[in-house]
Design a protein that fits this description.
Bound molecules: iron/sulfur cluster
Strand content: 15-25%
Number of strands: 10
Number of domains: 1
CATH architecture: Alpha-Beta Barrel
Order of helices and strands: EEEHEHEHHEHHEHEHHEEHH
Number of helices: 11
Largest sheet: 8 strands, mixed
CATH class: Alpha Beta
């Protein structure tokens, strides 16, 4: 089977069969992201991907779920992707879920019938990186799409019947813009109506353009207390119905899980507890596995 390192997948896809349908990210400009900076975006040949799927069938008696990597598989031709998904579904009828990353920059231009074809082929969930709902921050981070584009992309995914999991990047406003980051992210999430909201926390690491910007004084990294305040404001302003809030990433200070809206108070209480006990909860993070 063909794998070109590094390979990334959401933490919740840890038990999935990972198939690289594309390589790298066609945007590859976000200044907080170092994931695919060493790769040039390519779409793999459909027949090569199908050969990988056949090989995986020979190797695995049971496949729980399938994740189609790399960073923005949704950007490729939808007919070809639907063909791959149908083939994967045919070979792995036991798989409970087929999923992929999908950037709003590419989703907002997809015709509704293209997304419906992907759904009919068997695509269950798209992981979309909102990161921030604040237009100033999105532009500063070179995300390639504004908050309206994020909302439009979400509308198209939801209308196609595909579940939407949205990543939010805590700390992306730094110490200076944290409040507008929190408020506008909640505003945009309310409009996107995701099925899952997954916060991660910014970790400045060498290889990220933002790391160099911060070293030169252009970005003040947010501390643990600011991150918690940001989360508190964001969660307090969320008005989503029937959404899971899952803080399931190793970069986060505190694991916070719940279903919205009914678990909001319990999650806010966990944030309050972390703020009252900073030495216990808001110390240095262990980021070696990022
Ligand atoms: S954050 Fe997503 S869209 Fe931005 S460069 Fe990284 S993989 Fe590409």
């Amino acid at each position: 089977m063909y794998y070109e390192e590094p390979v990334f997948r959401p933490p919740c896809e840890a038990r999935s069969l990972i198939i690289q349908v594309t390589l790298g990210c066609p945007h590859n400009r976000c200044v907080f992201c170092a994931m695919y900076k060493m790769k040039k975006y390519r779409v793999r040949d459909v027949e090569d991907v199908k050969a990988d799927l056949r090989q995986a069938r020979l190797m695995h008696r049971h496949v729980e779920s399938i994740f189609l990597a790399d960073g923005n598989t949704i950007a490729m031709n939808s007919d070809k992707l639907a063909d791959i998904i149908s083939y994967a579904r045919h070979l792995f009828p036991e798989a409970e879920r087929v999923s992929s990353y999908g950037g709003a920059r590419f989703l907002k231009g997809k015709p509704p019938e293209a997304l419906r074809r992907l759904r009919e082929a068997g695509l269950d969930i798209i992981y979309l990186g909102l990161e921030s709902g604040d237009d100033e921050i999105l532009a500063m981070m070179d995300k390639g799409v504004d908050s309206e584009g994020m909302i439009e992309a979400a509308r198209r995914v939801k209308e196609a019947g595909i579940a939407l999991s949205v990543y939010v990047l805590l700390g992306l406003g730094g110490e200076d813009l944290w409040r507008q980051h929190a408020e506008n992210t909640a505003r945009v999430l309310n409009a996107m109506r995701p099925d899952f909201i997954r916060p991660r926390t910014l970790a400045l690491l060498p290889g990220m353009p933002l790391y160099e910007i911060a070293r030169e004084g252009g970005f003040r990294e947010a501390g643990g207390e600011t991150i918690m305040r940001e989360l508190q404001v964001m969660l307090g302003a969320l008005e989503v119905e029937n959404a899971w809030f899952l803080s399931d990433h190793i970069s986060n200070y505190v694991p916070i899980y719940g279903h919205l809206p009914e678990d909001r108070e319990q999650m806010l209480a966990s944030i309050e507890m972390a703020l009252e006990n900073p030495r216990e909860y808001l110390g240095p993070r262990h980021l070696t596995h990022l």
